[in-house]
Amino acid sequence: MDIYDEMMICSRGIAASFPDPHFYESCASQLAHSHSIYRQAPLVARCRKVVAQELARNPSHGLDHAEKVAVEAGALVLAEGARIGLEGSDANEAAALAQVAGLLHDMRRGDKDHARSAAIAAGSLLDNLGVPEKEREYVVQAIANHEAFVEPRIIVSAIGKLLSDTLYDADKFRWGPDNFTVTLWEMLRFARASVVAVIPRFPEGMEGIARIKGTFRSHTGRVLGPEFIDLGLSIGNKIYEFLRGRFAEDLT
User: Fold this and answer.
1) 63-104 pLDDT, tens per residue?
2) Distances from the Cα of 115 to the Cαs of 17, 119, 130, 229, in angstroms?
3) Terminus of the chain with fewer CB atoms < 10 Å: N or C?
């Protein structure tokens, strides 16, 4: 076991003492439905197959991250759809497109402007897969708009805006507990970076994460998203205390 696995196991142990975000209870039926769509939609399966190898190059934002974002974006579409009269097969199709956006949103994570680069790459991929222009544009716009602390481009279409907002929110849910139990350690592993070196930067990093609370875009995201961040920060504080004790000699 390397140091990153050790820290991940310890962090998950700390996180286990906290409750799950209420999103998983409040949207349980939508999540179950989204999982069903994810398993059955042909376009989702094709995109997953194509992108799996690309995402394997960056485990911190790899396939596990993308699949979680995809399923939860789909659930948010189903929860929000009724607000714009989206029901039945139309809602299912929109949820599947949100899942496609979730799978593809980080496929150019290493680029400086990764949201724009991923949007371009996703558009090309979907064009090659024969996805109609309107649906392709929904996905491209959503991916281009998923960067934090960047003013989103205005989207006129109600469905296009729905996909954009729900992709953003599902992705930012990951700034909660996931950030401290998985993402941080995989990022350090990917960079072969020192765990000790990151400890003094914890307070500043958590200040940045706290800023996400006010950025959620969908109604469901605005209601339930901040709890993800609050839980993540509470877990992060406990992990920070643990790290300062675990590496006390290295920090002096």
Assistant:
1) 999 999 999 999 999 999 988 899 999 999 999 999 999 999
2) 34, 6, 22, 22
3) C
